[in-house]
TrEMBL record, chains A, B:
It is found in: Mitochondrion intermembrane space. This is Nitrate reductase [NADPH]. It catalyses: nitrite + NADP(+) + H2O = nitrate + NADPH + H(+). Its EC number is 1.7.1.3, 1.8.3.1. One of its GO terms (cellular component) is mitochondrial intermembrane space. The keyword Metal-binding applies. It comes from the Eukaryota. GO terms for molecular function: heme binding; molybdenum ion binding; molybdopterin cofactor binding; nitrate reductase (NADPH) activity; sulfite oxidase activity. It is an enzyme of class 1 (oxidoreductase). Its cofactor is Mo-molybdopterin; heme b.
Length: 562, 562
């Protein structure tokens, strides 16, 4: 094992040298993509460092990346496979020996046997896959149903080495392993949520709830990478804080709640995939969940400042040590991410360890009993079911930090060099239309909108949300009733948002004379650094479909509604 | 006077009420635009508060705004003028009485006499115009030559009240006043700078200097709103710091240099008008200096932290008092601006009081002996020739804070409600092409670019700069050799930039096979919050032409050069 590791690390070292200056460097002579070496490293080194529990892990968002990573190796394999079709018969006990304690990893699917040793480092779900090696992979795919797609089958096919010996088959079938389903303890959820995937659960806030400033907790969009940890005794749930010198301090949630000052802030969380379906529709295919406009919600969060906890744990928060560059977080289900240390300790950054949402204890789907809230950053950094914090000189080594949540150029396919791209932290300016409604001139009469926009006829009211990252306030929302030919400024609603900066979405509304409204209504927002949204989706296209912020265009139906 | 002020302030009060919710509120019943009332207020209140010296002031960038502001009043005037052509003859001594001590202000131009009382509050140059009232305005326009344009003459014409009595004319001419030319002490400048206006001096860094990481001091672009103060004894130049409770502390530049820790950071300053000429060319007419790509430069600045000075002056910098929301700055020539207090005291904000650039004392054009450096913000906030700092609950009342440096919607003409718009602070992501050069395959051979981009034929090398506001680093630069059809990622050059965040521009370069290069090469940059530049100029068009960041398109000449 240590040899493996050494070889990979030295290879990795050569890779990173001067990479900033050389975005498109030649591939490794052995024809192995840097990403593979890189992730082999993340696989062998960091998890031990981060002491992640050895449990079943998989990432829905990440799976799509596999095909690309595997390509270089698979082509070699394919050649091999074609030259010598593997007719070899293999006994079950032989497969069982190639388990996680072995140095070559086999699995079977149907009656076919595969040696996936070479691929294991690339598993987007991390080392969890070792739980499946030596046995039947199908069992796990029946739980993580996200694997049940052609692109995953194709990858596996590259590693075929033989067939199960008929003597071990029962009525022509290989035995299924008996594995506990980690999702069976997932909470009950509101049936008004718009479900995008069942296991893990990913669901949008319904459109009729996107018009309220504070999203009801049970209507908050759900973005789970795995199952929901079932923490019975929230007060005694433990959080360990580790500093760069290795010193650790442990807290129970009760201690955190009782011994530190409470802060309540209002903050919007948005998934990096919000509006991904629009990029797919207006540009090209993207991988990952096809979210519409509802992977975003706004909440009043109550907790203690991360800054205060880190200070209590012994970190010099007002003069960070040289090696305190990032703060890493690990959740109870092994999800990991990190944020820059400067953000973590910023007095006006409002980074909280949260135990309440909208005045009630956190819902299980949203991190009970303790989660991070890093306002102004992509929601993927606000780690739920928090059980470990590590102050470090490097980013989290989780694939959710180093892989999934990055963007690439419009020209770049999935064969990218992941460590060239910057992890998404603060998000760009965003907006969406959440409702378009007809208003008769009688109902409109004397309303504020009628006054503001000087309307005395039948009108169309358009409303929506706008927000930006980093606490940058929305300064203007331009809305076009005629597909971008002409614009007017929407009214920005002065909702009260608690916190040092503008962490909440800004609701907006505008009305047009019905006869001025053409087929498409369009919105674009401008934030206080005067960044604006891109007009076309092509300009910011990335194969992951992250951070879709192209102007939101909505077709107006003939009766004026959406 | 106090009546005036009271009336204006109460009117203003009604205006601001709920304005956030009502961007397009009905105009004041008296038909006076809010902006006029608003600026009347800035004229009578703040300057006294800020104790700005009573000296000659004018703003080049602002002049263009006059016509709009004046419209409502002028139309009334015009009606008047047409109904009763002013044939009245007026004696010079009568004009002299209507000076700054009077409550109605007259000037003459040629042999015509004007009562400009109603307009004075709108003078973009502020109260300075009072220096001219009671006399010959022509004298001042010969100094501030920027006034010598039809739009300014037209405004004046609205206020005609009569003609100078022939008895006071010498050979049919009225006497010129004798006024000291404040520009005569302006420094000598490099003749390689690209001059956009002489008085005040505004000049670009030449293109061949935009490719160096650190701009030579004498090649740094010059952006002066007025003349250059002639400070003989820099060490004894005084800086007064005033806190919200009115307490003041005074420092000499020598004390600042000797008693506080020195810091050196590398930071790019960019004028909000940089690339304005591109918006004019690709969208519509804009007001203000028509800068190309050279209103930007990068420098090593040395000074002390504003945070340390404010702390020494008695401000609680780690826990700002409620009423410390902005920090205002006043220069020796009366230029004024402010930045948010959070930025001013941020440990990682690197806001400095600077006395050195590139290891030498500040050049006079750049603020000798002391200037503010607010990295990551528009250069207009980095006040030069600093002599006063005021911690306040409100922004600077100068027209450079409340007027010139704002943006509006593409649909909004010059009749805007200035206080609806947010002052520009942090700037959006930006990039420009600074050079396009042919490289023969022989010269290219074995070069790094050849390796990176796999080139073995004659090539075209494209280089430029990219930057963003708020210290947000540039994470990717996409360059298209064919007017946006296809893209490749440029190499980002790893120049060493000192400071807590990415305050410097990022130089980039890329090469294409000559046969792949079409008529236009295009660049767009992406910053670490994944904001991108707008494709079209129309999307971000604003009549002031501020913050032009549309994709920079450069036509490639047939010989491959720019």
């Amino acid at each position: 094992m240590s040899n493996w590791k050494f070889r990979l690390q030295s290879a990795y070292a050569t890779v990173t040298k001067g990479c900033r200056h050389v975005p498109h460097k030649p591939r490794d002579p052995r024809g192995i993509s840097h990403s593979r070496l890189y992730h082999a490293k993340t696989f062998f080194t960091p998890l031990s460092r981060a002491r992640a529990p050895q449990i079943l892990v998989a990432s829905s968002a990440a799976v799509a990346g596999i095909a690309a990573l595997i390509l270089s190796a698979s082509s070699q394999r394919k050649a091999l496979a074609e030259s010598e079709p593997p007719q070899r018969l293999i006994r079950l006990h032989e497969i069982h020996q190639h388990n996680s304690t072995s140095d070559s990893y086999w699995v079977y699917h149907g009656t076919s046997v595969y040696d996936i040793t070479e691929w294991v480092p690339n598993h987007p779900g991390g080392e969890v896959i070792l739980r499946a090696v030596g046995g039947n992979i199908e069992t796990y795919w029946n739980i993580f149903t996200i694997h049940q797609k052609q692109e995953v089958y194709d990858i596996l096919e590259q590693y075929l080495i033989g067939q199960i010996d008929p003597r071990d088959l029962v009525e022509g079938k290989a035995p299924m392993d008996d594995v506990d389903d980690p999702f069976k303890a997932d909470p009950q959820r509101s049936d008004t949520l718009v479900v995008r995937s069942e296991r893990p659960c990913n669901a949008e806030t319904p459109e009729d709830q996107l018009g309220t400033f504070i999203t009801p907790s049970n209507q908050h969009y759900v973005r789970n990478h795995l199952w929901v940890p079932d923490v019975k005794d929230g007060d005694n749930h433990r959080l360990v804080v580790e500093l760069t010198d290795g010193t650790e301090k442990e807290y129970s949630v009760a201690e955190i709640r009782n011994n530190f000052k409470h802060h309540t802030i209002t903050a919007t969380l948005q998934c990096s995939g919000n509006r991904r379906a629009h990029m797919t529709a207006e540009a090209r295919a993207t991988s990952g969940l096809q979210w519409d406009i509802g992977a975003i919600s706004n909440t009043q969060w109550t907790g203690v400042r991360l800054r205060d906890i880190l200070h209590d744990a012994g970190l010099s928060v007002d003069m960070l040590p040289e090696d305190a560059k990032h703060v890493q977080f690990v959740g109870a289900e092994a999800y990991g991410a990190s944020v820059p240390a400067i953000k973590a300790v910023d007095r006006y950054g409002d980074v909280l360890l949260v135990f309440e949402m909208n005045g009630k204890p956190l819902m299980r789907d949203h991190g009970f009993p303790l989660r991070l809230l890093c306002p102004g950053h992509v929601a993927a950094r606000s780690v739920k079911w928090l059980n470990r914090i590590v102050v470090s000189d490097e980013e989290s080594w989780s694939q959710w930090q180093r892989r999934d949540y990055k963007c690439f150029g419009p020209n770049e396919g999935s064969k990218v060099d992941w460590d060239e791209a910057t992890s998404i932290q603060e998000t760009p300016v965003q907006s969406a239309i959440t409702s378009i409604t007809n208003i008769s001139k009688n109902r409109l009469a004397n309303s504020e909108l009628a006054k503001v926009y000087g309307l005395e006829e039948d009108a169309v009211k358009v409303a929506g949300y706008a927000m930006s990252g980093g606490g940058r306030d929305i300064v203007r929302v331009d809305v076009s009733p005629d597909d971008g030919k002409t614009w007017r400024q929407a009214c920005l609603i002065d909702d009260e948002s608690k916190g040092s900066k503008a962490w909440s979405w800004k609701r907006w509304e505008i009305a047009f004379a019905k006869h001025d409204v053409a087929k498409h209504v369009v919105v674009k927002a401008i934030d206080e650094s005067y960044n604006c949204q891109p007009e076309s989706y092509e300009a910011t296209y990335n194969f992951k479909g992250n951070l879709t912020t192209g102007w939101h265009r909505v077709r107006v139906s003939d009766d004026g509604g959406v």
